[in-house]
Design brief:
The protein is of the alpha+beta class and 135 residues long. The chain contains 2 helices and 8 strands.
Length: 135
């Protein structure tokens, strides 16, 4: 299991960036896996997810100033670690950006917590495993 689940950042124009990344990442066998329309996003912009093996690990989105929407997500197979991250990050001075819980708008096993770091970057820890240590 990798430590990074995904990274996301804002771009000026999601369609321009989609075309760029589709071409630029093709030699790495990284393809566009999914597009999420504005009606399903927090910012009202379009999101494009790129990756391998049908899993989007790089996201770009518009309708937010580039640099302002930086997001990184760390992966774990234990929901208790999601909880521990949230508590430790808030205690360390982070700002709550979404307490631990299921995010059904992603899928029924997406258990995550979000904290803004001191510079406003959105840091997430996510457990997407439905079978390991999640009772």
């Amino acid at each position: 299991m990798t430590i990074l689940d995904h990274i996301e950042f804002a771009v000026r124009d999601a369609e321009v960036s989609r075309r760029f990344y589709e071409l630029a990442l093709a030699p790495l066998d990284i393809v566009r896996v999914i597009t999420v329309g504005p009606e399903r996003t927090r910012t009202g912009g379009t999101r494009h997810g790129f990756g391998k093996d049908r899993y989007p690990s790089l996201w770009v989105h518009d309708h937010e100033a580039p640099g302002a929407g930086m997001h990184i997500a760390f992966a774990t197979r234990d929901r208790a670690i999601v909880d521990a991250f949230y508590q430790a990050a808030v205690k360390a001075g982070g700002t709550d950006n979404g307490p631990p819980g299921i995010r059904t708008h992603y899928h029924e096993h997406y258990y995550a917590a979000y904290v803004l770091d001191p510079d406003g970057n959105n840091v997430e820890v996510v457990c997407q495993d439905a079978t390991i240590n999640n009772q």
